[in-house]
Amino acid sequence: MLFANASGLTPNHRSDPGLWPGPGCRRGQPGKTGLGRYLMIALTGVVGSFASIALFITITGWQNHLAELRFTGVARSHLQTMNSVLEDATGLLFSMRAYFESLDHRVSRTEYQTFSHSLRQRVVGLRDTGWAPRVAAAERAGFEQAIRAAGDPDFEIRERDADGGLVRAADRDEYFPILYSDPGTTSRPLMGFDLASEPMPNRVIALARATDRPAATPPLKLMNMQPPNGGVMSFIVVRNAALPNSDAPTTIAGVVFGAFETEPMIANILTSKLPMATLEMYVFDLRGPLGNRLIYWHSPSGRPAPAEASLLAGRHWQTTLELVDQQWGIIFAPSEKFDRVVQSWTALAVLAGGLTLTASIAGYLWLTLRRTQQLERLTASLRETGEELRHRGARLDYLARHDTLTGLPNRMAFRDNVANELKRTRRGSGLALLYLDLDRFKAVNDTLGHPAGDRLLCDVADRLRDTVREVDSITRLGGDEFAIAQTASEPARITETLAVRIIDALSRPYTIDGQLVVVGVSIGIAHAGSDSADVDHLLRRADMALYAAKRNGRGTWRLFEPAMEFDVQARRGLELDLRDALERDELELYYQPQVSIADGQVCGLEALLRWNHPHRGLVLPGDFIQCAEETGLIMPIGAWVLRTALRQAANWPASVRVAVNLSSYQLARGDLAELVEAALADAGQRGDRLELEITENALIEHYAAGQTTLKRLRAAGVRISIDDFGSGYASLSHLRSFTFDRIKIDQSLIAGITESPEGGAIVRAILNFAASMNLATIAEGVETRAQLEQLTASGCTEAQGFLFSPARRGIDVPKLFAGWPSPARNLPRGTKTAHAGTLRGAPW
Q1: What is the pLDDT of residues 672-710, one digit of tens each?
Q2: Would you say 748 and 711 are in contact if contact means Cβ atoms under 8 Å apart?
Q3: Distance between CA atoms of 490 and 432, rounded to whole angstroms?
Q4: By C-alpha distance, which of 320, 245, 308 is closest to 79?
Q5: End-to-end CA distance of the chain, in Å?
């Protein structure tokens, strides 16, 4: 307002006393109002100065905040690198265990020292490694005699006495004597020392046995070391190989241990992996006594280690560092060099610039009071501002009615266009609405990322522009949905031809970031008629036709028919009934046995969902699972199936697993692993009693989430099976990136195994692939003896189908076990069972 008031006058405005002398004033001296304007200029300088100072204070605080963020970021980066290197050290223990467990003969001292020496070269600070076999009390005499006979005549299992000397170990249930060490010789004084005789190693070995993972001691003083907390002993259990065809748990063969010197290990990380020139680092034992917890100290300036409390009193970042299963405290603090590096003169520059700018503005305002041409300049400025506002208004109107990504009209513009066209249809013109939805677009976002998905949408928009006529309007409704309004005197024939052209154009491959991408499109078509009341009514009809196109296999088009409205109502009724099915206890599980081809015994049962509808009767999954997935009801239904199957499996023989099918929607949820673990805990079942069947298409659709979830489930012992293998579009490279236990060959392939040589060749190729990947196989839909014989000859391990038994109700499963083996084993060659085709229903 100061600028506008001061610059809106000319010298001809003599009546304004603010600029020109009034009574009692000499020419050249300001009047009262003129003095007020000078005071306003002074006020501008004061306000500008205060604003500059305030901005200086704000930027200073912002710079301090950025410095803190940078300090924390650098500290986090250092911590991640150190944790990564220490994890490699833990991995050496796994390597040593794998070496012992992979050999089918006893490891000699030379073999052990050769292998251990190569490992120790990789980790600085790994001072010693050793092997201590487990020796039961009854085996002690024979074990000592064998070692003496092997070249160590003075060998015996020993322990420390009260004075620290080595004496013959007292009798106990088991021993863990040191047999090999590296570096070391057979005459080393600790050879034969029983690790279990010491309280701390004994506790750590017990922990390693209980968890089957590496376990470590708290920081301690190793032999020939000066620092009191400079070492860590870590142990990992080695198990004997399991006997073939045996369910008995493996026994403990012994323990492999390593002695780590923390100071050279951390120093090596700082010098070779992570030069730390601007931070100080204080590593300490979290459980150690105050005043004696220091493990390692680093300072770029070389200053001695301060007290822990003094570090915590200053600027610092504290977290934990992990070695094996031990957690150490670690404190990072910025050094003086760090403060010099992050120091910035921005705040002072802004202060100086602000004050300079304030002075310039004040001077400019002073001069504008003296200029006689300000009115002309102000007028020109207003004219330019008006033009800019008009341009901005036009731009805002365009943005309000167009999609910013593709440049197509948006939903608002489309509604206006279609509303105008509907008015013309009432005067005899024809109008058709095409509703488009891309197929497999989500897979592009999941695999290549959302930027690639955006570029694909732009390419789709370009192809649509090249396909439709200029008089037709295209819009992007949102996401991967588009719409086209087509006007024609004979819209039916022209619209169908356009739909075919669009499907052909959008289905051709795209090249996105060097990757070949293929998507499809489904189209719903609705023609405007006398009963088309408004845009929403026409869009709703086109949406119903689009839904029908997707249900008919995607990649096609469907024209709206009045019967579709009845289908929507029926689907709505099915959805409402399905929502109450769980509460009314209408769902039930049937089970079909999975049979071991080798011995004919039941090794598993697949849970198959059925719906006992009070009016529809027995409803198979194919009639309601899609509705459950589209409405989200698949989540509570899937959880019910999982809990019910595990509870019922508790009454079966312990060797029989239960197989449960997973929907792709369940796999996409982030809480699937927690759901499975909770169901196992509620039923009191081990993870290996459960097998989850997932289709290969579901794995590819949810690639990233699937990898994380399946790894966690397999770590809990749950088995993973690829269901309907051979019917999806997954590539072998995709399947190799997943870890699973079994391939379930699709029943459509089994049906053709005896009908043509090609069908048999496909199944044999799948079985050979599974064998090369060391995976078990199961064939579903086995109905004839001939199919079973071919599968047996090709190396299939398990089978499932009506040849053995139809699906049985859960309450009838005990009768199934009581009457096994199945009569199907005595069927004549090449005949089907009486059950074949009578209760056929695909598992969901």
Answers
A1: 889 999 999 998 999 899 999 988 777 776 666 677 888
A2: no
A3: 10
A4: 320
A5: 72
